[in-house]
Design a protein that fits this description.
Length: 1163
C-alpha cells in the first residue's frame, strides 16, 4: 500500500512539474510576449530612472504618454487655475439656494407656462390684424392661371420615353428605334422651351409671393386657438398676483450681484476639459513603450524577482543592487497609480456629464448679463395693469364652425401653394443644370447617330450622363403640371379668410392697445428666463462641482508626482555619482526600451490577429456580388487591385502567423538570444494592406445588403494586418535584445574574462597594414558618404550634370516656383534688380531656373543687359542663360543694348562696350545649366480641398502634420483635390480653380490613400498629378501645362491684356482679379478710355484678340464694343474667359516691331 502511494505521489509531482511552466489556454506566442514584457518593463524602468539621474527626464511628456493624452492640451489644462471661478460659482449658488428655497415644482411649471403665454403676447403685439382681416384667397386666385404650361407635351413625351429606355424598361425593337431617333429632332422644341424660362420664372415669383401669404394665415389661426386654449386673458393677471413675491425674491439675487464673466470663464475651462479628454495622443509610444497598460509600472518590482527574470536574465545572480537602484522608480509608479485613478475619474465623469456641462456656461452668461437697473416691482405692476386694460375688449370664444371652415379651405389652398413651390424649385434646378455650350455639343452628337445600334451610340456620347440627368428632370414636369391643375380646381372654389374670426375675437382693438401702451413682453421674457436659470443652476450645480473637484484632485496628484520626480534628480544624482548606479551603465537605455517595447506591441498585434484567423479566412469566402462590389465600386484604387485576388495573400498571412506560433514553442525553452528570434521571424511576415476598415465603410452605406459580409469586415476593421509596416520595429527589437543581454551579463557578472597574449609584429607589416587601412578608410569614406543624404544628393547631381537628360531637369524645375523664391520674390530677378552678383552666383550655381521672366516678360539676362550690368550678364551667360529668348517686344537679350547708347547713355558707354564684348566672346560657346537642387519633402506645404474623404484627410494630416495645413496660403506647394475615377478634377468653383493658375502642383486624392499605406510615396507626387479639369461640362487637359509654365515663370499669359467688368454681380471677383493679375494682366477699376490704347495693338500672346477684355454677364447692351471698327475690344462671359485660360492657346505676335498696347507705354 505504501509503495503504491509513493508511486502515485511521484507521478503527481512529475505531472505538476512538467506543466508548471505552461499557462493553460494561452498560445506559445502569447507566453513569449508575456515573458519578454518583463524584460521590456525592467528596461523602460532603467531608462526612466537613468534619465532622472542625468536630469534629462521630461516628466510631463512621460506622464501624458502613459495617460495617452495630448501633451499640449494636458499642459494647458494643468495651467488652468479656476479658483476665482469656483469662488464666484459658490457665491452664486449660495444666493440661488436662498432665493429658491421656498419654491417648488409648481412654481417651475408655472414659469414654463408663463414663458409660453408671453410668446403668444409677443405674437399679438407684432401682428397687424387689420391687414390679416382683409386677406381673401378668392381675390388672389383671380390673378393665377388655371394651367401652367412651359414645354410642348410632345417634347415631354419624348423625354419620358428616353428616360424609360435608358433605365432599362423593355421596349419592342422598332419602338426603341423610334424613341432614340426622336432625340435627333427634339433640339428646336427643347430650345423653344428653354427660351420661355425667364418669363416663366418671373410668373412663378409673382404667383408664389401672394400665395405664400396664406401660410401666414394659418400661423395667425394657431395663435388665436392658443390664446383661447391657454385662457391667457384670465391666467396671466392671476399668476402675476399669485407669484409676485417669489418672483421678486429670485430677481433680487441679480440686483445684489455685480456683473461678472463667470459664464465665459467656465466656458474656457470646459473647452480645455473637452480638448484634453477627447483628443488622443499619437498611438506610437516613445518614452513608455514598455508600459502599454496602466498597471504595468507597478509590476517592475515583482518582475525583478520573477522566476523568468532569474532564469533567463540574471541567471541566479542577486538582483538586490538593481532593485535598490530602482526604488525611486517604484515610488514614481505608486504615485502614478494615484494619477491614473484621478485621471480616470475626471475623464469618465466628464464624458458622462459633458452634454449637461456644455449648457451651464450659457446659462451663467445669461445670468451675468441680466439687467440690474430695472425696477422689477414697478414693471410687474405696470405690466399687469396694461394687460388688463388691453384685454378687456378680447373675447375668449372661437366659433367651431368658422374654425372647421377655415381649416378645410386652408388645406385646399395649401396644396396649390406647395404645387407652385414645387414647380419653382424644379425650374430653378433645371436652370442650374443647363449649359448652352454643352447642350450644343450633345445635339451635334445626336445628329450624327446612325440607325444601327443607336442605343449603344447614345451611351458612348461624351458626358451623356449629364444630358440624361436633364432629361430625367424634364420627365417630372408632366406630373407637376397635373398636380398644379388639380390643386387650382380645388382651391378656386375655396374662400380662405380670417376676417370674421378676428373681428369676433376683438383682436384688432387688443393688438392696437398693446402696441400703443408698450406692454414690452420682451423685458418680461428676460425676467422669466433669469428666474428659470437660477432655479436650473440649483439643479445642475452638484454635477458641475463634482467635475471641478475631479479636476482639482487630478491637478494635485499630477503636481505631487512631478515634484516627487524632481526630488529624485536633486537627491539621487549625488548619491548615484558616488555609488555608480547600475542604471547608468547601459548606453542608450531609452532607445532600447523604445525598440523592445514597440517590437512587442507589433507581436501583440500578431497575437490578436492569430486569435481571429478563422474570421480572417472567412473574408476569402464572400459571395460573388460582394466581391464584385469591392472590385468595382470601392473608392480606393489599391483596394480594388488587391481584391482582384485576395485569397492567396490572406491565406499566406494566416499560414505565416501559424508558423510563428509553432516556432515560438521551441524558442521559449532556449536562452534570451534564441528567444529574440521571434522578432526576426515576425519581421518576415508581410501581412496585407489596410483594406477591411475601408470595405466595412463601403458595406455600411449599403444597409443590410451585405449584412453577413459586414459582420466579418466589422470584426477585422480594428485589426492591424499590415505587418510589413512593423518590420523596422521588429528588427530594432531583435538588436536591442542583443545589447540588453550584454548589459545584464555585465551587470550580473556573467561576462567571461578574456586572457590577452602579446605577440611581436614586424614594423614593415605594421606600416603596410596602416597604409592598407588608410586606403580602405578613404574608399569607405567615399562610399559611405554616398549613403548619406547629402552624399547621395551630391553624387546624383554630378551624374545629372554630365549625363542627365532634359527630362531629368524638368522633374526638378517643376518646383522652381517654390525653390527659387525668397519672401515671395524670384531670387534671380531680385538679384539683378539689386545688382547683387554674389546672390545671383549662388542662385545659378544651385540650379535656379535661369530663363525665368518678370511680369513684363523679360528674363534676368534681358534686364541685366538693358541696365548695363556687365558682371551680371557674364554670370548669366556662363551658366546657360538662353541668349535667343524673345521678350514681348520680340527682342533677344543682346538686342536690349540701346542702338545709339554713345548718344543716349553717355554715362554707360564703357559698360555697354563691355557687354558687347562679352556677347561676342561667348557667341559660339554653349554652357551647361547647373543641376537644380532637389525640392525636399520637408518644404512641402500641402492644402487639401473640402470635398475629399474626411477620414482619409484626417489620417493624412495626422501622419504628415508638419507639411499639411487646413488653410490655403500663398506658400502652398500642393493642392490635393477630389477627382473622378479617371483622375479628372470636376468643379465650377473658381476659388478652387485659382490654384491651377497660381502654379501649385495639383494632385489626386488617391495620393493621400497610397501615402497612408506607404509613406515613402509622399515623394512620388509626380505619379498623382491631375492632368485634366472639367469646368462647366467641358474637359480641358492643360493643368500640367499651367503648372510647368508657372514653375518656369514663362512670358505671362495675359501680358498686355486690360480687363474691365461689365457685370451687376460678380461672385468670384476676388478670384478673377487674382488670376488676371497673376498672369500679367491689368484689372481696371473704371471703364477704359479707348484713346489711351494704340490702334492695331494686341496682347503679345494673343495677336487675334483686342487688348481690352470686357467680361460681361449677358445682361447689358455691348453691341457698340462688339462691333468696334478698330477691334480694340474682346468680349467674354466669365465662362468664355475661363475657356480661353483653360485652352491655353497661344497666338504669338511675331512682328519684329510690336505696337505697344498703351499710348504712353515705355519700351
Amino acid at each position: 500500500m505504501k509503495l503504491c502511494h509513493a508511486i502515485f505521489s511521484t507521478f503527481v509531482v512529475f505531472f505538476v512539474a512538467s506543466g508548471a511552466g505552461e499557462k493553460q489556454g494561452e498560445s506559445q506566442l502569447q507566453q513569449i510576449y508575456d515573458e519578454l514584457s518583463i524584460l521590456s518593463r525592467v528596461t523602460n524602468a532603467i531608462a526612466l530612472q537613468a534619465a532622472a539621474l542625468s536630469k534629462t527626464v521630461k516628466i510631463r511628456e512621460v506622464i501624458t504618454e502613459l495617460l495617452k493624452v495630448d501633451n499640449g492640451n494636458f499642459s494647458n489644462l494643468l495651467s488652468l487655475d479656476p479658483a476665482h471661478l469656483v469662488k464666484n460659482l459658490d457665491e452664486l449658488h449660495k444666493k440661488s439656494l436662498q432665493a429658491v428655497s421656498g419654491s417648488n415644482e409648481q412654481l417651475q411649471q408655472d414659469l414654463k407656462e408663463m414663458i409660453a403665454m408671453n410668446g403668444l403676447l409677443a405674437a399679438v403685439e407684432s401682428e397687424n390684424y387689420t391687414e390679416k382681416a382683409t386677406v381673401n384667397s378668392l381675390i388672389v386666385l383671380k390673378k393665377v392661371d388655371e394651367k401652367m404650361e412651359i414645354c410642348d407635351e410632345s417634347l415631354i413625351t419624348i423625354m419620358f420615353n428616353i428616360s424609360q429606355a435608358m433605365s432599362g424598361v423593355p421596349f419592342a425593337e422598332s419602338d426603341e428605334m423610334k424613341i432614340f431617333s426622336s432625340m435627333k429632332t427634339m433640339k428646336k422644341a427643347f430650345y423653344k422651351c428653354i427660351s420661355k424660362f425667364p418669363a416663366f420664372m418671373q410668373k412663378l415669383y409673382e404667383y408664389n409671393y401672394p400665395l405664400s401669404g396664406f401660410l401666414e394665415l394659418n400661423d395667425t389661426m394657431n395663435t388665436i386657438k392658443a390664446l383661447n386654449e391657454l385662457d391667457i386673458a384670465n391666467k396671466i393677471p392671476n399668476m402675476l398676483q399669485k407669484f409676485k413675491t417669489p418672483f421678486l425674491n429670485i430677481l433680487a439675487v441679480g440686483d445684489h450681484r455685480n456683473k461678472g464673466n463667470t459664464g465665459k470663464l467656465l466656458q474656457s475651462a470646459i473647452t480645455l476639459f473637452k480638448k484634453t479628454v477627447y483628443s488622443n495622443s499619437s498611438t506610437r509610444l516613445f518614452l513608455t513603450a514598455g508600459f502599454p497598460e496602466s498597471g504595468d509600472m507597478k509590476r517592475v518590482a515583482k518582475d525583478l524577482t520573477s522566476d523568468w527574470f532569474k532564469k533567463k536574465v540574471s541567471r541566479g545572480k542577486s538582483t538586490a543592487e538593481l532593485e535598490t537602484a530602482l526604488k525611486p522608480f517604484n515610488q514614481f509608479a505608486e504615485s502614478m497609480a494615484h494619477v491614473f485613478k484621478s485621471w480616470n475619474n475626471f475623464r469618465d465623469d466628464f464624458q458622462t456629464d459633458s452634454a449637461l456641462l456644455a449648457t451651464i456656461p450659457d446659462l451663467l452668461s445669461q445670468i451675468d448679463d441680466y439687467d440690474r437697473n430695472v425696477d422689477k416691482k414697478k414693471f410687474l405692476e405696470n405690466f399687469e395693469a396694461t394687460f388688463r386694460t388691453c384685454f378687456k375688449n378680447y373675447k375668449n370664444a372661437l366659433d367651431q364652425g368658422e374654425e372647421t371652415k377655415f381649416l378645410k379651405n386652408f388645406s385646399a389652398v395649401y396644396l396649390l401653394v406647395r404645387s407652385v413651390q414645387a414647380v419653382e424649385q424644379w425650374a430653378s434646378e433645371i436652370s442650374t443644370m443647363f449649359d448652352e455650350k454643352a447642350m450644343d455639343v450633345y445635339f451635334e452628337e445626336l445628329e450624327k447617330l446612325t440607325p444601327s445600334n443607336i442605343k449603344e451610340q447614345v451611351e458612348k456620347i461624351t458626358n451623356f450622363d449629364d444630358f440624361l440627368k436633364i432629361i430625367n428632370k424634364f420627365t417630372m414636369l408632366k406630373s407637376l403640371q397635373t398636380q398644379y391643375e388639380s390643386a387650382y380646381k380645388t382651391s378656386n372654389s375655396s374662400e380662405l379668410s380670417l376676417s370674421k374670426i378676428i373681428t369676433d375675437a376683438g383682436l384688432v382693438d387688443t393688438s392696437k392697445c398693446l402696441e400703443k401702451d408698450k406692454l414690452d413682453s420682451s423685458k418680461l421674457l428676460k425676467m422669466l428666463q433669469f428666474m428659470q436659470h437660477m432655479m436650473q443652476l440649483d439643479i445642475d450645480y452638484s454635477t458641475l462641482k463634482a467635475n471641478l473637484d475631479n479636476f482639482f484632485e487630478l491637478k494635485k496628484k499630477m503636481l505631487e508626482t512631478e515634484k516627487l520626480v524632481k526630488g529624485f534628480t536633486s537627491r539621487s544624482a549625488r548619491a548615484a555619482s558616488n555609488s555608480g548606479s547600475p542604471v547608468l551603465k547601459i548606453k542608450d537605455s531609452q532607445k532600447h526600451a523604445d525598440h523592445l517595447g514597440n517590437g512587442l506591441l507589433a507581436i501583440k498585434k500578431m497575437i490578436i490577429s492569430l486569435k481571429e484567423k478563422a474570421t480572417i479566412l472567412k473574408s476569402t469566402m464572400f459571395n460573388a456580388k460582394a466581391n464584385q462590389e469591392i472590385r468595382e465600386k470601392n473608392p480606393i484604387d489599391y483596394i480594388k487591385e488587391f481584391w482582384t485576388n485576395p485569397g492567396p495573400s490572406i491565406e499566406k498571412l494566416v499560414s505565416d502567423l501559424e508558423k510563428l506560433e509553432q516556432s515560438s514553442k521551441s524558442y521559449r525553452k532556449a536562452d534570451l538570444l534564441t528567444i529574440r528570434k521571434v522578432f526576426e521571424d515576425g519581421s518576415k511576415i508581410v501581412g496585407i494592406p489596410e483594406v477591411f476598415s475601408y470595405i466595412d465603410s463601403q458595406f455600411e452605406k449599403k444597409g443590410s445588403q451585405y449584412s453577413n459580409e459586414r459582420k466579418i469586415t466589422q470584426a477585422l476593421s480594428t485589426l492591424d494586418l499590415n505587418f510589413a509596416s512593423h518590420k523596422g520595429a521588429l528588427s530594432a527589437a531583435s538588436l536591442s535584445v542583443d545589447n540588453l543581454k550584454l548589459y545584464f551579463d555585465d551587470l550580473f557578472g556573467l561576462t567571461p574574462k578574456v586572457s590577452v597574449q602579446s605577440e611581436s609584429t614586424s614594423p614593415i607589416v605594421v606600416v603596410l597594414i596602416c597604409v592598407a587601412i588608410v586606403l580602405v578608410l578613404v574608399i569607405l569614406a567615399i562610399v559611405g558618404y554616398g549613403f548619406t543624404s547629402n552624399g547621395r544628393n551630391q553624387y546624383i547631381n554630378l551624374y545629372l550634370y554630365y549625363f542627365g537628360k532634359t527630362s531629368d531637369y524638368e522633374k526638378r524645375w517643376r518646383y522652381s516656383l517654390f525653390m527659387d523664391r525668397v519672401d515671395g520674390k524670384n531670387v534671380l530677378i531680385d538679384s539683378v534688380r539689386e545688382i547683387n552678383a554674389t546672390n545671383l552666383l549662388k542662385a545659378v550655381k544651385r540650379g535656379a531656373y535661369i530663363n525665368v521672366c518678370n511680369k513684363y516678360g523679360n528674363t534676368a539676362l534681358h534686364v541685366a543687359t538693358r541696365r548695363g550690368y556687365q558682371n551680371l550678364v557674364e554670370i548669366l551667360i556662363k551658366h546657360g542663360a538662353d541668349r535667343s529668348f524673345l521678350n514681348p517686344q520680340n527682342k533677344t537679350a543682346e538686342q536690349m543694348i540701346p542702338v545709339n547708347y554713345q548718344e543716349t547713355h553717355k554715362e554707360k558707354i564703357e559698360r555697354f562696350k563691355s557687354i558687347e564684348s562679352i556677347y561676342n566672346k561667348y557667341r559660339k560657346k554653349k554652357f551647361k545649366l547647373c543641376v537644380p537642387e532637389k525640392f525636399p519633402v520637408s518644404s512641402f506645404h500641402i492644402y487639401i480641398e473640402d470635398r475629399t474623404d474626411d477620414n482619409v484627410t484626417n489620417e493624412f494630416t495626422t501622419k504628415f502634420q508638419s507639411i499639411t495645413s487646413d488653410e490655403a496660403m500663398i506658400t502652398t506647394t500642393h493642392v490635393v483635390v477630389k477627382t473622378t475615377e479617371d483622375g479628372i478634377l470636376e468643379t465650377d468653383d473658381l476659388n478652387l480653380l485659382i490654384w491651377i493658375f497660381h502654379g501649385s502642383i495639383i494632385v489626386r486624392d488617391t495620393w493621400m490613400v497610397d501615402c497612408l499605406r506607404d509613406e515613402k510615396l509622399i515623394e512620388k507626387d509626380c505619379d498623382y498629378l491631375v492632368e485634366k479639369v472639367k469646368y462647366k461640362g467641358i474637359i480641358y487637359d492643360t493643368v500640367t501645362q499651367w503648372s510647368n509654365a508657372m514653375a518656369k515663370a514663362t512670358t505671362p499669359f495675359l501680358y498686355g491684356v486690360h480687363v474691365a467688368l461689365c457685370m451687376k454681380n460678380c461672385p468670384y471677383l476676388a478670384s478673377l482679379t487674382a488670376i488676371i493679375q497673376g498672369q500679367g494682366g491689368t484689372m481696371l477699376d473704371k471703364f477704359p478710355d479707348k484713346d489711351a490704347f494704340n490702334k492695331g495693338s494686341h496682347p503679345y500672346l494673343h495677336k487675334n484678340l483686342g487688348p481690352i477684355f470686357l467680361l460681361h454677364d449677358g445682361t447689358g447692351d455691348l453691341d457698340l464694343y462688339r462691333s468696334d471698327p478698330d477691334k480694340m475690344f474682346t468680349l467674354f462671359t466669365e465662362q468664355q474667359f475661363m475657356d480661353l485660360l483653360f485652352k491655353r492657346e497661344i497666338n504669338k505676335d511675331t512682328n519684329p516691331k510690336i505696337i505697344p498696347v498703351l499710348v504712353d507705354e515705355e519700351d
